[in-house]
Design a protein that fits this description.
Strand content: 15-25%
Number of strands: 29
Shape: globular
CATH class of the largest domain: Alpha Beta
Radius of gyration: 24 Å
Helix content: 25-40%
């Protein structure tokens, strides 16, 4: 095997895994354009991707996955801490020894007949104290190509790993060796899928799936599950949050981070095009934020990713014009429909579907069922976004003024609610609930608790995670951003959304800025402070004041039911739930 690394630590690790996986060849991926084009040609020759029309969608491709490999596999995702209590009640747990005993036989010869792609990558801006380095070993050219868009993959990163010998080892295999069998366009092994994380040793082992966060191991696996554990040890936060730069009509700049479950509008908000004259917005990140204290006491956030892995269905010129421009070229689409002209389409892209579609299963679409999978995705470098903020790669990060917490709730939760304090904000984050989407396996539309949108991504005991949030705020003391609970998805009696959303969400953000600047009085409710009548600018919308009013009303009977549900939810979280949060719940119970 060609020696790719001189570091004894890195070389020995790579040799050990190469011997175990037994690939036909080994290729170091460093992201040069010629290498990427070679991966593209290989994938096209295998039928794994098709090149889209170069005029309609330059340098863009469509992949169609196996129908059994279409989403995050939470039921097959494990936190393998030494003590089960350290994984906590919200994670699947197995001991490291048990999990490795189960997975090592799967890896034996798993890449026989395939290429082992060695992908050295960095999460976080170059030169930043936030940055973490990793090496992903994969037998998927699709994953290798996607990693060059989602992480920082370069010769410089490989050299940095070689010099330090410090990296997060990440093993991935689709689990389909080629010895004695024909290859398929999307190899996967659903019957033997595991996505395992070893927090104490900072290792990631993934087997069987080639899709999204199960396979692009720098994303949810490193940046959130392992990152959250490292953050707890080192005193920072790894969060499932967008980062938005807001510029007021006076030119003052504010940075807002927002936690929303997958497919609940993070990318739409991150690429906000304000409908209120004078306001401007720029994108820092659309999915993950690493947050640390600065020397001035304020909280600073960076986007550790280099690209966007967004949900395509529902994305349109109306809902997210910036995203549509971002993915106009240089994009890998997955599980979208293919048009007769050689472009992609998904539900919501246009009001009516074009004729002659090939659906996400590769069959002529008959109008029955979705043409694109509900979790169809686009993968594109963040640098392609027309509204990317100049400081999106600032090594120091950007200072946060406010934190948003949100999800899909058809009722109960107001459009926007300000927490009374940091502790109250942590309480609201701990009890967040959202209607499930197609981003994860299982039924959609079911309300589940998703604290801080981190239920699938927190790499340790959720009670300790809440405690870390409380302690992080207590240690920061000054310069803390205010916390707001938002809900764009409230419906009326006809089950229609009341709030127009999208670019009009700037109206809510404007009220938040007014609160920060002391210009809005608000109205106190048992849940927190909501806008007082007239404080949300409705000019230019179709909403009257009377139609808007229910958006900031709370049904106390419904809230009382919610409180009882939270009591049961808290009881299931065990002894590590901070007493302060139980106190907050009791105070809410009294207010109700």
């Amino acid at each position: 095997m060609e020696k790719h690394f001189s570091s004894p630590t890195v070389a020995a690790w790579l040799q050990e895994w190469t011997d175990r996986l037994d690939p036909e060849r080994v290729e170091l991926v460093t992201g040069e354009p010629a290498q990427q084009e070679g991966l593209v040609d290989l994938l096209i020759s295998r039928g794994s991707i098709v090149r889209l029309d170069p005029v309609l969608r330059p340098n863009s491709f469509l992949a169609l996955s196996d129908s059994r490999d279409v989403a995050r596999l939470e039921s097959r995702t494990f936190i393998c801490s030494e003590q089960e209590s350290d994984a906590g009640p919200t994670n699947n747990w197995r001991s490291p020894s048990e999990m490795k005993a189960a997975m090592l036989p799967l890896y034996e010869g798993a890449m026989r007949g395939r290429t082992l792609y060695v992908v050295p990558f960095a999460m976080g801006p170059e030169g930043s104290r936030f940055q973490m380095l990793g090496i992903e070993l994969t037998d998927s050219a699709y994953v290798a190509l996607s990693m060059t868009r989602m992480a920082r993959v370069s010769k410089a990163v490989a050299e940095a790993i070689d010099q330090s010998g410090d990296f997060v080892p990440a093993i991935h295999s689709v689990g389909v060796p080629l010895a004695g069998r024909e290859d398929v366009p999307w190899p996967c092994n659903p019957e033997s899928t595991y996505v395992a994380h070893f927090p104490e040793t900072r290792e990631i082992w993934s087997f069987g799936s080639g899709y999204g966060g199960n396979a692009l191991l720098g994303k949810k696996c490193l940046a959130l599950r392992i990152g959250s554990v490292v953050g707890k040890r080192e005193g920072w936060l790894a969060e499932h949050m967008l980062i938005l730069k807001l510029i007021s009509p006076t030119g003052k700049i504010y940075y807002v981070a927002g936690a929303f479950p997958s497919a609940c509008g993070k990318t739409n908000l991150a690429m906000l095009v304000p409908t209120v004259p004078g306001w401007r917005a720029e994108t820092v990140g659309d999915d993950i934020a690493w947050i640390r204290r600065g020397e001035d006491g304020r909280l600073y956030a960076v986007n550790p990713e280099a690209g966007f892995f967004g949900v395509a269905p529902g994305t349109s010129v109306r809902s997210n014009a910036m995203a549509m421009q971002t993915i106009s070229r240089d994009t890998i689409f997955t599980n979208c429909a293919l048009t007769r002209e050689g472009d992609v389409w998904w539900e919501g892209a246009t009001e009516t579907p074009p004729d002659g579609l090939i659906d996400w299963k590769g069959l002529p679409w008959d109008g029955q069922g979705p043409a694109a999978h509900p979790n169809a995705r686009f993968t594109v470098p963040a640098s392609k976004c027309p509204m990317i903020a100049p400081e999106w790669q600032d090594p120091a990060g950007v200072p946060l003024s406010a934190l948003l917490l949100g999800g899909r709730r058809s009722d109960l939760i107001p459009l926007v609610t300000e927490a009374r304090s940091w502790e109250h904000g942590v309480f609201l984050g701990s009890i967040m609930a959202s209607e499930t989407t197609a981003a994860a396996e299982g039924p959609t539309g079911k309300v589940r608790r998703d604290p801080f949108a981190m239920l699938p991504f927190c790499g340790y005991n959720i009670g300790d995670y809440f405690r870390h949030w409380l302690e992080f705020g207590a240690e920061s003391k000054e310069g803390l951003p205010r916390i707001y609970l938002v809900n764009w998805f409230r419906r009326n009696a006809d089950r229609k959304y009341i709030w127009p959303g999208y670019g009009d969400n700037v109206r809510v953000l404007s009220w938040i800025i007014d609160r920060l600047e002391g210009r809005a009085a608000g109205r106190d409710t048992p849940l927190g402070v909501v806008p007082a009548p007239g404080e949300i600018d409705l000019a230019g919308t179709s909403l009257s004041a009377e139609e808007f009013a229910p958006l900031v009303e709370i049904d106390l009977a419904d809230l009382a039911v919610e409180v009882e549900d939270v009591k049961g939810y808290y009881a299931n979280l065990g002894e590590r739930l901070p007493a302060r949060l139980r106190d907050e719940l009791e105070e809410l119970h009294k207010r109700v």
